[in-house]
């Protein structure tokens, strides 16, 4: 049985007071779950979130990190810094990082190595854009992103990897991939990993779906065989919605 995960990517939302308030609401609304539950507030609120959730089953994770251990990289945050405040998991390769901050596959491969080096677990995001899907290129795009970002790793490192398929056209648009489209791509991802590694690596890796997951569609998407939970944007900012999505992952 694969681990199920429901993770909330808060993106650049919630100041310090709002973060504390949403966490209080999550503590009272998210029911104990068989899925792992994670939230990713902004960097400045991570330490406070870790302290507030000490002893809770909700894990606090980071939205990004730099590939270097330290040095002259003004405005950046290293994996060691994240570890030092109790963060064990980092999201890498989100489409917004790729699109707005120029993060390409080669840079992401360096970030993956850096995160593993400090013992972090990685939620690695990837997915095609609308024109790529329309052109029938989505499988090639996803295969390329996986290959360039992750396939240099040894099989033994895959225990630290969680995948998040997020078709760019479904992020923040209200347009969700249909459960069938999600399943089709997740099965393709598993097949691609089995070819590059073996069946045991591909069957063990948790693959999340992300893109306009809401309380109303979560259960159907999560019920698909190769969908092991979700990476949630907008709906993770409303405690009742996030709690309902966590419940849908049982
Ligand atoms: O980008 C996402 C999660 O990382 C998905 O965002 P939405 O759920 O707002 O579409």
Reading the helices and strands in chain order gives: EHEHEHEHHEHHEHHEHEH
- CATH fold node name: TIM Barrel
- Report how far apart the termini are: 13 Å
Per CATH, the superfamily is: Aldolase class I
- % residues in beta strands: 5-15%
Question: What's the architecture, going by CATH?
Answer: Alpha-Beta Barrel
What does this 3D model show about the protein?
- The chain has a single domain (5-176, 195-248), classed as TIM Barrel (Alpha-Beta Barrel).
- The protein contains eleven helices and eight strands.
- The protein has an eight-stranded parallel beta sheet with strand order 3-2-1-8-7-6-5-4.
- Helix 7 (138-150) crosses helix 8 (179-196) and helix 10 (215-222) runs parallel beside helix 11 (239-248).
- It is an alpha/beta fold and 250 residues long.
- It is globular.
- It has helices spanning 16-29, 46-52, 79-84, 95-100, 105-117, 130-134, 138-150, 179-196, 199-204, 215-222, 239-248, and strands at residues 5-9, 36-40, 58-60, 89-92, 121-126, 161-165, 207-210, 229-232.
- It catalyses: D-glyceraldehyde 3-phosphate = dihydroxyacetone phosphate.
- Its main location: cytoplasm.
- Its EC number is 5.3.1.1.
- Keywords: Cytoplasm, Gluconeogenesis, Glycolysis, Isomerase.
- Involved in the gluconeogenesis. Catalyzes stereospecifically the conversion of dihydroxyacetone phosphate (DHAP) to D-glyceraldehyde-3-phosphate (G3P).
